[in-house]
Design goal:
homodimer, alpha/beta, Rossmann fold, 6-stranded parallel β-sheet, 5-stranded parallel β-sheet, 18 helices, 14 strands, about 50% helix, about 15% strand, globular
């Protein structure tokens, strides 16, 4: 089955249905879960902490009745002693690198003179007051995600950063994740996950403060709760983040075993993940196909991950051949992948291709630029739009936590210059009575 | 009734309930309309243009069966001949000023060297492919809104800008609005409004292309449709824009008749609009109260607008007294108004206050900076978050149409530097197998 699914195909020989099937990948079925989570969110709104403790018992098998939802200073202290010196150092290095990247070129307030200096106009750029960061838990730990979600908020100047993550059944958070949350700059940390955590951050409870924006990836329950509460105007959210994706554009100079590793690196995340190679080299397509089959079917390196990778590649994998690199990048723009690797050797080719790239969450240029580096300590953000949302949404960054206000400071002279236009247009809109006259009254008055 | 409602009150003597009541203002009841519009949106998805023509007949009393939904070149040409020379000039001036402001300091792609020059990281900033602009119609015309919604998209580099507005019952769009849409840069214009227009832009129909983002204000049906389709991941939307609001902070030097005009300018929009004065001067509070009552109750200038203004002030108006200006700005931040006017004379006071302002859609500094100027030809944008959403959302601007991708270009050296961290952290996350090894395989290979 996987042999047929992955066998190299010509992109332009695909039927429209086949092409769209690839672009569609795994669609989030939010409508299948929304009816389940609305009562949970409503319950959290009504009963607060009490409801949270019950759901945490039910879903995470953790009893927080006596310990409470909030992580204590002692627990944080203990977590630091539980991790190895090396883990601490590497986390610290990652935090420093992510801080460093996210500190560059942050949009900031500006004003400029207009109307021959008679008016000053601009944009005020300020952070939200409070941000919530959802850090997934469960089967795996995500200390790296804690750093990616929290550090940009801190750099953007957010004063209160509330982090939440589901506890293990012993009522604790994995030490390395807890250290990452604290080190990144969370001001308060709570042991709660799922849609109940999102509801708590949106409505606020006795112990959890409500926030202005919620960021961070999660499962379908978490993502649907974010979207729902965004719609009902309780919160703003970051971006739709679902199963991981990689889209590799490669020419004949690329190394098929490197390509294979990168494809499988995404496929190992989830059976709904998506890994695609598009190349103008038949040789690269065939070689990658062979190595991929071998790695997946023998499972020597993959171990327990084998079945996940296999399913992911069977469901959403593809190796596609194009005549030109332009054709490949055109398809990439239609696909709008979370991660786009461009493994092209020729410099002028690379620059040409780069100019054509429009829609990708994160772009990796050249053979040494592998997604795994950016997943961890490189510094760029790994919380990215998936499922084609890169057509519309930004990667998580400091900008996610900022907002723009218009600023204007006028003199009487500026108003005089604008008056004829305001009069004409406010009359045309039937709003002259007051809009137009609010100018006139200022012009009539003697200059002070 | 209006006498009691507007009578100056001390802010700190309000009960918590009274304070929250003011902050709450008019809440959008999206849940009351969503069940009505879901079938309409579904119908447009299924039946396309046919459904649109039926709804336009039903809701706008316009029969487009033979003429079709799209505005023709001839109609646009005709519209230009229908408006006065003066209207044309003032529209053109407005478009030029809005273009001028929105062209300044646009975020653009950047990369910088990191890791002693061994890696290049940055952000790629590109516009969406297609934007939809909703221009309200009905009782009034909004040529100014057409310019505010469309010009920033064009400046941001959006290639296709699809504008929609409900037609009049004769199947036409008011000439001045049509000229504004065309002049601003709409690439296609359709005669359709309400939730059916939003659905058409989100799903696409035979004649209307689907878009990536929909911007522009509308009534509760339009806004709810935008939010719903945003949740279901068809589109991105700009910001929640409901009834207009003004919040004025004034000291003893402000002119009560100017204040009155500005308050009424917002109140005249809609009976759900909201106008609030907060001042540390008892004299200003009392004088404004008197003038306001006189203008509203005699209705000399207001004319037909009298009853709207009266209802708006009764429902959502307030005159509040504070001991200090700091207290006033603190309340402004809690309120997060669409428009904030700061009518303070003293320069050092103004600068102090400005630093404290965090949440407002648009900020007007000094007595000559009146909202009406920015509503029209000043250049700053008038599509702003309302209802407290300024705590979380930006004003509409070029940034609305852009998105940010991460960019990374690594050398082998950079990977070597990062390798220990990636190994440690990917092991901690249980993702070493492939993530860690995708680095190792690149390091093992001989340097080319």
């Amino acid at each position: 089955m996987i042999k047929t699914k992955l066998r190299p195909r010509k992109l332009k020989e695909l039927t429209v249905v086949e092409r769209n099937e690839i672009i569609k990948r795994c669609e989030a079925k939010w409508d299948e879960v929304i009816d389940k989570i609305i009562p949970i969110m409503q319950d959290v709104k009504n009963r607060g902490d009490k409801a949270l403790i019950e759901y945490t018992k039910k879903f995470d098998k953790a009893d927080l009745t006596t310990k409470g939802l909030e992580v204590t200073k002692e627990e944080i202290k203990e977590a630091y002693t539980n991790i190895t010196k090396n883990e601490y150092n590497m986390l610290y290095q990652m935090k420093r690198n992510v801080s460093n990247f996210h500190s560059r070129n942050i949009p900031s307030t500006w004003t400029e003179k207009f109307y021959s200096g008679k008016a000053e106009l601009g944009k005020q750029i300020v952070p939200v007051d409070r941000a919530g960061a959802y850090i997934p838990g469960g089967k795996y730990n995500y200390p790296s995600t804690a750093i990616m979600a929290i550090v940009p908020a801190k750099i953007a100047g957010v004063k209160e950063i509330v982090a939440v993550t589901p506890p293990k059944s012993d009522g604790k958070i994995e030490s390395i994740t807890l250290v990452a949350m604290d080190m990144a700059g969370a001001t308060r940390i709570f042991k709660v996950g799922g849609s109940q955590a999102i509801a708590a951050l949106a409505y606020g409870t006795e112990s959890i403060p409500n926030v202005d924006i919620i960021v961070g990836p999660g499962n379908i329950y978490v993502n649907s709760a974010k979207k729902w509460l965004n719609m009902t105007e309780r919160i703003r959210i970051d971006l739709p983040a679902g199963p991981s994706e990689i889209f590799i554009i490669a020419d004949s100079e690329a190394d098929p075993s490197w390509i294979t590793r990168d494809l499988i690196s995404q496929a190992e995340h989830d059976e709904n993940s998506c890994a695609i190679l598009v190349t103008n080299s038949e040789e690269i397509a065939n070689k990658t196909y062979k190595i991929l089959l071998k790695e997946v079917c023998t499972g020597k390196i993959l171990g327990k991950k084998m079945s996940v990778v296999k399913k992911s590649l069977e469901n959403f994998g593809a190796i596609l051949l194009t005549d030109t690199l332009e054709e490949a990048v055109e398809f990439a723009n239609d696909f709008a992948p979370e991660h786009l690797e461009i493994m092209i050797k020729n410099k002028s080719d690379i620059n040409k291709i780069l100019k054509q790239v429009k829609h990708a969450g994160s772009i990796f240029i050249g053979e040494y630029s592998t997604v795994a580096a950016a997943d961890y300590n490189l510094g760029t953000n790994h919380i990215l739009p998936t499922g084609g949302a890169a057509r519309r949404y930004s990667a998580l960054s400091t900008e996610t936590f900022q907002k723009i206000s218009m600023v204007q400071k006028l003199t009487k002279k500026a108003l005089e210059m604008l008056d004829p236009g305001i009069e004409t247009l406010s009359r045309a809109e039937g709003l002259y009575n007051m809009h137009g006259l609010s100018i006139k009254i200022r012009l009539r008055k003697k200059k002070k």
